[in-house]
Write a structure and sequence with these properties.
Length: about 375
């Protein structure tokens, strides 16, 4: 009996870049010609010509590096539908969300980020979401507790109707009821979910106006008379994946002491890695900032197609997703969308060894962060 051909998980397609390469080659020839002309005429024109030669040489060198980075752009096509046939036992994934200030980063923004992660198209028992709060805010914890109740409705609704954008604040900006002809059941559920989300926003808004979001008792007692820059570690399991189809949700506020550096986001990521290693210890980790959301529910499966589809783990350490921005101005005159960086240079670097880590929107192998599995660290030491 012949061996079956395994399902492909991803494919790297080189983009046609003939015209751009011809233009870049022509420009390189012109720049080199200019430099030779400057060099041969130095004795005639003196210091000003030398200064121009040095500036143009630096420009040529920098331009050459940019062209080299985008010389071989590629598109990576993933096949998430082939993931489970190849790996019936899907790997677990830990998702990290970092926030630091409930004033500059309103909790409702963090809540939307968390909800979009909890609702991704992946088995809930294979996911865990950890929220790092460097502001040690009772308001942030209260918002996450309330959002965990809404998540039970939101996750079920998204998976039932295959919602594409799973951050509620973006999803409810459009009215699918008025733009299409949905069935009666969808219309009733949509209105119910929207009303529940608006109620959640109202509760968080009212809580933010108070000195304390609620009575600081029971789980909230640790926030009574606490100092944001001087407090012990706080770890709270907000929800567990038991019967509801919702991933684990864990709140973490790491220890801070005066005169001891906490290293900002890097320190928070270090604590998230260690705590998750003791609790769920997933082989893959996703980190996002609190002002981001998932705009594709297949994001976990697509990343794993590349991470587990390699012959060797050493071939790929992390998957960096590009960032997209909503509500941009027309034609983006200030370049806020970073199209050149994300679309051209990023895809060009993907044709080399891949883009650098951007600090957010990235899937890591835990081995890359640890250097070994947590259980083997002691034997190595």
């Amino acid at each position: 009996m012949a061996n079956e051909i395994p399902f492909p998980l991803y494919h790297k397609n080189a983009r046609k870049n003939t015209i751009q390469r011809a233009l870049d080659t022509t420009l390189l020839f012109l720049l080199i010609s200019l430099l030779f002309y400057r060099l041969l005429s130095l004795k005639t024109h003196g210091f000003v010509w030398l200064l121009a030669f040095l500036c143009e040489s630096w420009f040529t060198f920098f331009w050459f590096l940019i062209v080299n980075a985008k010389w071989n752009p590629v598109d990576i096509k993933t096949y998430p539908q082939s993931l489970e046939p190849r790996f019936p036992e899907l790997p677990t994934v830990d998702m990290f969300v970092t926030t630091a200030d409930p004033v500059r980063e309103p909790p409702i923004m963090t809540v939307n980020t968390v909800l979009s992660l909890l609702a991704v198209d992946y088995p809930a028992d294979k996911l865990a979401c950890y929220v790092s709060d460097d502001g040690c805010s009772a308001l942030t914890f209260y918002s996450l507790v309330e959002s965990s109740k809404f998540a039970k409705l939101w996750v079920r609704f998204c998976k039932k109707y295959k919602v594409q954008v799973r951050a509620p604040f973006r999803y409810f900006l459009e009215d699918p009821i008025s733009t299409s002809a949905p069935n009666l059941e969808f219309k009733e559920e949509w209105e119910k979910i929207k009303a529940e989300y608006e109620h959640l926003c109202l509760k968080i808004k009212e809580a933010s106006r108070k000195s304390a979001p609620c009575n600081l008792t029971h789980d909230f007692a640790v926030f009574a008379n606490i100092e944001t820059s001087n407090h012990p570690t706080i770890i709270k399991i907000i929800s567990e994946n038991c019967e509801e189809d919702v991933p684990h949700l864990v709140y973490i506020s790491r220890e801070k002491r005066p005169k001891y550096p906490h290293h900002f986001k890097a320190g928070a990521m270090n604590v998230l890695s260690r705590v998750s290693g003791l609790m769920t210890n997933a082989p893959f980790m996703l980190n996002v900032d609190c002002d981001m959301f998932v705009n594709n529910p297949q994001v976990v499966r697509q990343a794993l197609c590349q991470l587990v589809g390699r012959e060797s783990e050493r071939d790929m350490g992390f998957i960096q997703y590009p960032q997209c921005f909503y509500n941009a101005t027309k034609d983006d005159p200030y370049g806020n969308q970073m199209v050149v960086l994300m679309e051209y240079i990023g895809r060009g670097l993907a044709g080399l060894q891949g883009p650098p880590y951007a600090g957010t929107g990235c899937f890591h192998r835990r081995k890359v962060i640890y250097g070994a599995w947590p259980g083997k660290a002691a034997s190595i030491n």
